[in-house]
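We modelled the chain as a single entity of 353 amino acids. Its sequence is:
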Amino acid sequence: MKNPNKPKVNPLSRIPRQQRLIMAIRGGAGVGKSHFISSMADAGLGKLCIFDMERKGRLLRGVGEKFDALEIEETDELPEFIEWAISGDGREQNYGCFALDSWAAYFSAKHSEMLEAVREKTGDPLAQPSAEELAADQMILQNVLRRLCFESGKSVVIADQIPAKGKESKEDNEIGRVLPMTASGLEYFVDVMVEISLQERGGEITRVFQIVKSNSPAFEVGYEMTGNITFKDFLDHMRGEQALELAFEKPAESNVPEFIEERKPLTLVQNEMTIDDLIKKAEANGFKQSDIVTGARIYHNQPNIYHLTTEQVLDLDKRISARIEKMQATVAAEKPEEKSEEKPATTTKKRVA
């Protein structure tokens, strides 16, 4: 239900004024996902806040100093922590970017709860959720991503895990593909998805960052960056490829107000009658100024008609107008009606001799 007291947002105030990058990184254990996330603290975006589902933030260098890592002890705490950081008291921390480590940990835990509920309901220990249940489950869980990626208005990195080989093909069944990327759904919320792996390049093991999905013209699918890559390297690549007009660090100035001021309906202001106007009106209709003085004494206990307020002058005008109408009605009643007298028609006949 619409709140009538809520100010009306000016749509022109929502034109983008600051660039940001929403990114998903996927990879196996030990490839450096958490290390890459912590590099956001050095990207010049402001203070980093990590929502730590795996409780590994304690192992990162700079935790508690360069950035915050909030340990999520229970799965249901994640939406509350995000709400706190984006809309609650956490805004006082002035976080400039966010990260979730990891989405797979949150999704798996909540999905397991749903699976357990289905099996308890059906009494079948091997029961699987239907396509409709999976879709409903994903829509509910993805509210976390929507809040973090869209409503925060900040750059975000979300860590995920690469599914086991062959898992994608198993998602196709006799019903059809249940949901694309059922265990993730990240491609709907991020600008780019990067797969991190350790590969042998030139006789050495190196870290490879490969773009596997992209909604950004700055990153083509298949584009690779190798080595000790940080989040700032991706920002620098965006700046170089697109010659961005919007800066990452500070929003551009805007003269557009955020809210539209409610326009009050125009009201017609009646011309105020002065005592001089009242005197002229009275004399034009057969009254005298003394009649006004008498009326001011009787009805308003004011002997000086020039000290009457506007309301009192209007009241006397109303009374005089009533007297004038009464007088005119009396005169009209006493005036005899003029009746036209009809003469009888006469005819003359000529005598015919």
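As a brief sanity check on the tokenised model: The beta strands are 8-9, 22-26, 47-52, 67-71, 95-101, 155-160, 192-201, 204-214, 224-226, 259-260. Residues 17-165+180-254 form a domain with the Rossmann fold fold (CATH 3.40.50.300).
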